[in-house]
Design brief:
- By secondary structure, the protein is mainly alpha-helical.
- The protein is built from 13 helices and 5 strands.
- The protein is globular, with a radius of gyration of 23 Å.
- Bound molecules: fe (ii) ion (FE2) (2 copies).
- One fe (ii) ion binds next to α6 and α7.
Length: 474
């Protein structure tokens, strides 16, 4: 059977010449398609979606646009162009040649990291599978599906590494990536946030802003890896990830914009009145923000971590944009990290820098999250209101690390546990918040029309108008 691999699976990894990889992928691909049918976007298999497909890694090729039925999307395998004579940029192996093969002693660690990253990709598709039924516009529906097919491709990217570099156990791991499911009682996805349901579009925008941004920082850390194929794979994935965060950033901005219009029209800041007019009051939006930000912070791991130190020492996983740091060894440096003192207060602990890498990366992530919040606050300020949205303290509602379970307010204050539990409902979306937001979720599919709770985007996709028929429903 002659298959044109470049046509079916666009790639720059010489798939057409690599029999072993072909065999592995030929076995896996039908199962991937079964998974997509069962666990991917429900009911839109026949719709023609205006999607971009990566067909090569150069500036033109990774963004070729056209109407595609999602099951026919060409999930490809791309690595960023190699850097000639690339060397390891940090840790004990600093300056030595990057690895083109997996060193035996790091095999299981690398495999675990690739599986953990790979697991998040299909997980988010599963989390978002029902959202198409309540899309606020065809523009948004298209963006949802774009994110979904690209997360599917990110799964392919990780499966490629498992198949190409990890032999039999890699193939087994690739199978299991299709068997765990988000929120499944018996076989859940590996990381907590990826088991949280996403049943409304406000959650979707929060997820793409905060959780896809965690993805950005993980990919940036892995892009520094001494294992060159992993580094190149993640570098290319980052180009797609940028759009996912754009969807979240602009999605939240559009919700705020619409809310401000309603506030102006009605001359009120009263949540109940705003809700009655069909918009999301800013306090509810803040509670959703608190939920997704705090959940995403856990994904970076513990403040002090011997695993993280090991990854850095060996060269397996670095810091995002490692080149920006003056010291790539981090052997003598210490980090001052705030920890609970066990008596209701805070103490500063000196941790060897390598052990504090999770906290270093989390700090960069928090600063990146701030940028959107500032932009959203400018919209509110310009409209003449004093309300400000803010990121809760990174110690608020943590489930992992030194602050796990600590009764900390969004302002960062440690309070009595009873009071904290009582007030948690003020800080996180309540059942009635969620029910209200769900009640707004009505499907709008007339080209150019928007649901009443969200403002139109500033512009369409790829220079097309907002009223373009981005999804042709059958
Ligand atoms: Fe992804
Ligand atoms: Fe993403």
């Amino acid at each position: 059977m002659a298959i044109d691999y470049q046509e079916r699976i666009p790639n720059n990894v010489d798939l057409g010449e690599n029999r072993t990889l072909q065999r592995a992928l030929e076995q896996w691909q039908p199962r991937f398609l079964d998974w997509w049918r069962e666990m991917g976007p429900s009911d839109f298999a026949a719709a023609e979606v205006y999607l971009r497909t990566a067909t090569s890694v150069d500036a033109k090729g990774w963004a070729s646009y056209g109407a595609v039925k999602m099951p026919d999307y060409r999930w490809g395998i791309f690595l960023a162009d190699p850097v000639a004579e690339r060397t390891i940029g940090f840790g004990d192996e600093l300056g030595k040649p990057a690895w083109q093969q997996v060193p035996g002693e790091h095999r299981s660690t690398l495999r675990r990291l690739i599986v953990t990253q790979g697991d998040t990709e299909p997980a988010s598709v599963e989390q978002q599978r029902l959202l198409g039924h309540t899309c606020p516009s065809l523009y948004d529906l298209r963006n949802l599906f774009q994110v979904n097919v690209e997360e599917g491709r990110h799964l392919w990217a990780m499966v490629y590494l498992l198949h190409a570099y990890f032999g039999r156990d890699g193939r087994e791991e690739a199978e299991e990536l299709l068997q765990r499911h988000s929120g499944d009682a018996d076989k859940p996805r590996i990381l907590g946030t990826f088991n949280e349901p996403i049943t409304d579009w406000l959650s979707f925008f929060m997820f793409t802003y905060f959780t896809d941004r965690d993805g950005k920082f993980q990919l940036k850390s892995l892009a520094e890896s001494a294992f060159d194929p992993l580094s190149r794979t993640c570098t290319f994935m980052l180009t797609e990830e940028a759009h996912h965060m754009f969807v979240g950033d602009t999605g939240i901005a559009r919700v705020i914009k619409r809310t401000l219009e309603v506030m102006k029209e009605l001359g009120t800041e009263d949540a109940a009145t705003i809700r009655a007019a069909g918009a999301v009051d800013l306090a509810t939006l803040q509670r959703y923000l608190n939920f997704w930000f705090s959940s995403s912070l856990d994904l970076f791991g513990s403040e002090s971590s011997s695993n993280a130190a090991g990854y850095f020492a060996t060269g397996i996983k670095g810091r995002p944009d490692e080149a920006q740091y003056p010291d790539h060894l981090a052997t003598d440096a210490v980090a001052e990290v705030a920890m609970p003192d066990g008596k209701g207060g805070v103490t500063s602990e000196s941790i060897p820098m390598r052990n504090a890498m999770n906290e270093v990366v989390r700090g960069s992530y928090v600063r990146d999250c701030e940028i959107g919040v500032k932009r959203w606050n400018r919209l509110i300020e310009k409209a003449g209101y004093a309300t400000t949205l803010r990121l809760p303290s990174p110690r608020f509602r943590r489930s992992i690390g030194a602050w796990a379970g600590a009764p900390v307010t969004p302002e960062g204050e440690i309070i009595a546990r009873e009071a904290w539990e009582r007030r948690l409902g003020d800080w996180l979306p309540s059942e009635s918040d969620r029910a209200f937001v769900r009640s707004l979720m009505q499907k709008v599919t007339e080209p150019g029309k928007m649901a009443a709770w969200i403002a139109p985007p500033d512009r369409g996709i790829n220079n097309l108008g907002i009223d373009y028929e981005y999804v042709r429903l059958q």
